[in-house]
Write a structure and sequence with these properties.
4-stranded antiparallel sheet; 16 strands; about 30% helix; alpha/beta; globular; about 325 residues
Length: about 325
């Protein structure tokens, strides 16, 4: 119980850190120049980004698809409009370059995964093998505990080893694992990368101290895109209503501009992972500075549109203003 209480206190402290980060740094007038300031990010970032980004800039990962769910990657800045609480915003930064990726692969290893573990491992290994040298991934498992099995690396062999270490058993601490993953990504948010969590689970949280509402609240203060995959029921789903666990996974994805996948068969996992990999390489980065000066901590709704009505645009639903 003492360990759980410590986790909850840490969650609350880091939630304040998430919300305070934008306002505190903006007050200090700190400016980053991507593409010229940080050699640590590597030459691929320097070549891709030549625009100026201030810390009070709202950064959006934007996915655009057509009616057949094909990714549209040939739009320009003038093709987009960004609205905050219904008010048109001026776009300050735009890129359609293929940014390097930092992702967390979050794997359910609770007892209910026993019969699915081998298949899930193989599909996850094949997915990590598609990562490029500039991409990095971290492997986190969650059963009765949430554990980081492999810290961020681009080494395919180390990622494979970590995935194959997973063993099914115990309860499901999904919310704790989400907190750990969000915190791992938050620590490195100043580096120019697309950040994502790929979450695979077959059930609902049964033992976390952190609640779903707290995790969802935390996602609203990040630029992390969540892709959730439910293996709760591998029978055909036609006509079946969403379970409570599936609603959780769906809401996490939709809130952050990601996608949720409920495959009918384990054999569909490879195509799901392939779809996620393609999307991460097909996104736009759109940034704006809000024309609302109030620092009231209020929720602000974001809508992004294109001048082509036949296209579907997906991004995070909003953010909390500095408080």
């Amino acid at each position: 119980m003492r360990q759980n209480s410590g986790l909850l206190m840490e969650f609350r402290a880091h939630r304040r850190s998430f919300r305070g980060w934008r306002g505190v740094v903006a007050a200090g007038a700190l400016t980053l120049v991507l593409g010229g300031l940080t050699a640590a990010a590597g030459p691929f970032v320097q070549q891709a980004y030549q625009f100026r980004v201030t810390v009070d800039l709202i950064s959006l990962n934007v996915t655009v698809t057509d009616a057949r769910e094909r990714f549209i990657t040939d739009l320009f800045e003038e093709d987009f409009s960004v609205y905050e609480d219904g008010i048109l915003q001026e776009i300050e930064a735009f890129s359609r370059e293929d940014l390097p990726i930092r992702m967390v692969l979050l794997l359910d290893t609770s007892a209910s995964m026993v019969d699915k573990m081998n298949f899930a491992q193989e599909a996850a290994v094949r997915f990590t093998q598609t990562l490029r040298m500039e991409d990095v991934a971290q492997v986190v498992e969650f059963g009765s505990n949430a554990n980081i099995l492999q810290k961020f690396t681009n080494d395919h062999g180390e990622l494979e080893h970590a995935i194959r270490m997973t063993q099914a058993g115990g309860t499901t601490k999904l919310h704790n694992a989400m907190y750990i993953s969000l915190r791992s990504l938050e620590r490195q948010r100043m580096e120019a990368r697309r950040q994502a969590i790929i979450l695979l689970s077959d059930g609902r949280d049964t033992s976390s101290l952190v609640t779903f509402e707290q995790v969802l609240d935390l996602t609203k203060d990040t630029d992390v895109v969540i892709y959730s995959i439910s293996l709760q029921n591998t029978a055909r789903r036609r006509g079946r209503r969403f379970s409570e666990a599936e609603h959780v996974l769906k809401n996490l994805a939709e809130e952050t501009g990601g996608q949720w996948f409920f495959p009918a068969e384990l054999a569909e996992l490879d195509s799901v992972y392939a779809r996620i990999a393609e999307e991460l390489k097909s996104q736009y980065n759109v940034g704006y500075i809000s024309n609302n000066p109030r620092q009231d901590g209020a929720w602000r709704r974001i809508v992004v549109q294109t001048n082509r009505p036949d296209l579907r645009v997906r991004t995070k639903l909003g953010y909390y203003a500095p408080g």
